[in-house]
């Protein structure tokens, strides 16, 4: 994805230019959908600065944290070390569009805001689905296409916004959709106004 306007170079520069990019808190939909699952092996796709990774590791998960921004991974590793979780996390520098999990299988695959063009996202979801262990869960959370109609400042790239139902239809046979939702939450736009936006939340189970 090096040639992608929102690819590795874009994100690496964004992380390098800021002391921190994200809040340090786990994504709300991850907490909502995963808190009751028994811990096992999890792939955190687009792990960034490690907030989701550290939350999962703190709940007993063994985490493979994948991201293509080296600066973000370094910060995540530092956060995990300070929290005493270093032994529960493998930090992997890789691009999800080309990364091969090999023989590894995961009880949970979590991907938040993986805004690839739809054909590319469909290919990635198929590959990720193949890395699920029997009974494993896939959690995909995206900005909903309706956000483009708000003032919250989403890029005008509708081909990168997918509903949960659309993504569910791309999953291979054998997957059961448990949640396909457009979940509202409040955000603040560039003028300081409160805006209702939506997360497209897909949770599915293999086998």
UniProtKB/TrEMBL annotation:
Keyword annotations of the record: Methyltransferase, Transferase
Specify one Pfam family. Answer: Methyltransf_25
Q: Species name for this entry?
A: Amycolatopsis endophytica
InterPro entries per the record? Methyltransf_25 (IPR041698), SAM-dependent_MTases_sf (IPR029063)
Give the protein name, as stated in the record: 2-polyprenyl-3-methyl-5-hydroxy-6-metoxy-1, 4-benzoquinol methylase
Biological process terms from the Gene Ontology for this record are: methylation
Whether Transferase counts among this entry's keywords is yes
Q: Which molecular function GO terms apply here? A: methyltransferase activity
